[in-house]
Structures are given as structure tokens and as C-alpha cells.
Amino acid sequence: MLRSENLIAVGLMGLSGYFMLHATALPIGWVEGSGPGGGAFPFWLSAIMLAAATGILVRNLRSPRDADAAPFFDPETVRAVASVCVVLLITIALMPVVGAYVALPLMLLWYLRIFGGHGWRVVVPLVTITPVALFFFFEVTLRILLPKGITEPLFFPLYAAFF
């Protein structure tokens, strides 16, 4: 088990370095008058992922070796991870077509209601509030436009109100 975790940690560290390197193609600091640069969030999120993967690797290298006999994933875990990965790929494929404000709530609806088994009292507020919060955070506050696909004309009144 520790060997698998170590391999995944090293892989994540490599991916983090790759993402950080490519994020530096854009400004990663504060751009005067417009906010964080285009590479700021990818760079710092990758830095956090690098720190977390490094922490996992260091912890595993310090732990005893006899824990290696346990299986890394049981079949139920593999099934759960695979289903989430498939839904994430579907969500990413839907974003250019229907936009982030439709694709993300649909993914959230599936994740909370079907995968997580939560009740409608939890699901409906989260699925409703999340796209509104995303709009105000990314588009109004950070001025980072998310893909809208065929829903773009619905946002013209909001653009007129906030920009």
C-alpha cells in the first residue's frame, strides 16, 4: 500500500511541477488594476498540491514497512473512483457546449443526490447557490470569464449590470 501511495505522491509532485511551470507563462502575482494574474490560481493550487504530495511521501518514507501487505484499493473504492472520474470527464465535455453554469450544477446534482445519497434539502440549495457564487467570484470579482456555451445570451443582462 505504501509503495502505491509513494508512486502516486511522486506522480502528483511531477504533475504539480509541470502545472507550476506552465502557469508561469502568465503573470502569477497581482496585476495592478485587474487583480491576480492569469497564472496565479493554477500556480498556487499546484504549489499546494506539491506540498501535500511531498507531505504524503515524507510521511510514508518515515512509516514502518510492514504496512505494505494491505491492498491499496478494494473493489468498491475502485468502482466509486471510476464513476466519479467518468462524471468529471462528462462534465468537462459538457462545459464548451452548455457552459460551466449548467455543467457544474448537473455534476453537483449527480454527486450529491445519486453518488452521495443526500436529501433534496441539501441538494437543491447547493445546486442553486453554487453557480451564483461561481459567477460572482470568477466573473464579477476576479473578472475571469467561465465558458458559457449556448447559455451565453442569458448572461448579457448580467454583463450589462456588472461590467
TrEMBL record:
Which key words are in the record? Membrane, Transmembrane, Transmembrane helix
What sequence ranges are listed for the domain DUF1468?
A: 8-147
Q: Which Pfam families match?
A: TctB
Superkingdom field: Bacteria
Q: Which residues form a coiled coil?
A: none
Q: Where are the transmembrane segments?
A: 7-29, 41-59, 80-112, 118-138
Name of protein = Tripartite tricarboxylate transporter TctB family protein
Source organism per UniProt: Halovulum dunhuangense
